Amino acid sequence: YGTQQINENGHLTIGGVDSVELAKKYGTPLFVYDLQLIRERARGFIETFKKLGIKAEVAYASKAFSCIAIYQLAKEENLSLDVVSGGELFTAIQAGFPTERIHFHGNNKSYSELEFAFDSKIGCIVVDNFYEIELLKEISEERKQKMRILLRVTPGVEAHTHDFITTGQADSKFGFDLNNGQADRAFLEVKDHEYLELLGLHCHIGSQIFETDGFGLAAEKLMKKQGEWKEQYQFESTVLNLGGGFGIRYTEEDTPLEPHVYVEGMIKTVQEYAAKLKLTMPEIWIEPGRSLVGDAGTSLYTVGSRKNVPNIRDYIAVDGGMSDNIRPALYDAKYEAVVANKANEERLSTYTVAGKLCESGDKLIVDAPLQQVESGDILAVFCTGAYGYSMASNYNRIPRPAVVFVESGQHQLAINRESYENIIQNDLPLSLKKGEY
Ligand code: LLP
């Protein structure tokens, strides 16, 4: 993946840095991010729009991995930002991210989160539901402050990896249904509002998608709706946001497309329908999360105990697990790994990689082909950069790992390892007196 290689000691290197040295210096479990790969991906999306002469915003969907340093990298790479909570917005602002390039998502934004967005003068709120429209009207009118908005719609196109399905009505907690009049009602509620400036429509059809037809079909549906609104109300939208969901390669079964292929695919459809329906070509916004940071992240663990279940399998246990990567337990997600200090040896053995948490489902990889493993070896699990750290927990009171960034032979801490002190920092002593029963 990315800049990974094997050095003269047989160690895995990332960004020109020896992963075994990183494990020694920063401890394990450790997330290592290869910045070059993130930059290349970001540029892959942005340059494609430029080449095609299409105005665009590529917003990093930061739920995939959020911290101050990654927001600063996103700023350096001219990305916009998709945040989904006050916490992500706060982190982005602390990072010095330009607020006019921040888009705020979520199906239940609180009043105070929305006020925070207005205070911060963010670029756009992606409106999800009728309750939110009420809140936005109230806040914007009270402040006499403008806010740009998109309406999130569910187009009845749902895509996963190789397939997509279309349904008349999507059973989704997100957005206004495009097919049953909800989206039209929402449009009528906001189109002439004094302070809410409607830019256009948004949809997100799924995650880990390996084909372009689903995006094309969604684009077609949204463009047709915009065509109707132009005809009936002379409303012309300026933005079409087609969400994220571009796939990455976790294992060899996954066959993602290059960023430019996804972009070219969707642009073709939008241009076709813009011409057909005599609409001005809108700006295209997209929201890649996983495809920017997913395969740039590698988790390093130290192997501890081992167990043989005769005639069934060999287990090796690492010093993290579902507390830093819940995806195998939650989604049955698959990963590949190598022994980082023996990366030059062939993977002729098979082990099930267990975590250290008190839960039998805490397995990172079942039956992984690996080098011969001994206690003390460093295990590198690939492609953990998206929804790994960001979904980490303190289950079993395990401190969250540290995060290190590497690039061109340099390395730096991006997030400190949590300490036991951090873990108890919000705990308070028992102060109630024993009751009488
Ligand atoms: N935009 C919207 C509105 C989204 O809901 C999402 C992801 C994205 C963009 C970014 O999607 P991506 O490019 O990362 O696929 N925790 C799950 C993934 C949940 C995705 C939620 N929404 C996982 O670990 O696979």
UniProtKB/TrEMBL annotation:
Gene Ontology BP terms: lysine biosynthetic process via diaminopimelate
Residues involved in pyridoxal 5'-phosphate binding: G245, E287, P288, G289, R290, Y387
Residue positions where N6-(pyridoxal phosphate)lysine is found in the record: K63
Reactions catalysed: meso-2,6-diaminopimelate + H(+) = L-lysine + CO2
Residue sites binding substrate per the record: R290, R327, Y331, E359, Y387
Coiled-coil residue windows: none
Domain Orn/DAP/Arg decarboxylase 2 N-terminal intervals: 38-293
Enzyme class label: lyase
Keyword tags: Amino-acid biosynthesis, Decarboxylase, Lyase, Lysine biosynthesis, Pyridoxal phosphate
Pfam families, sorted: Orn_Arg_deC_N, Orn_DAP_Arg_deC
Oligomer and partners: Homodimer.
Family statement drawn from the similarity comment of this UniProt entry: Belongs to the Orn/Lys/Arg decarboxylase class-II family. LysA subfamily.
NCBIfam families: lysA
Function according to Swiss-Prot or TrEMBL: Specifically catalyzes the decarboxylation of meso-diaminopimelate (meso-DAP) to L-lysine.
PANTHER family associated with the record: DIAMINOPIMELATE DECARBOXYLASE, GROUP IV DECARBOXYLASE
Name of the protein described by the UniProt record: Diaminopimelate decarboxylase
Organism of derivation: Lysinibacillus halotolerans
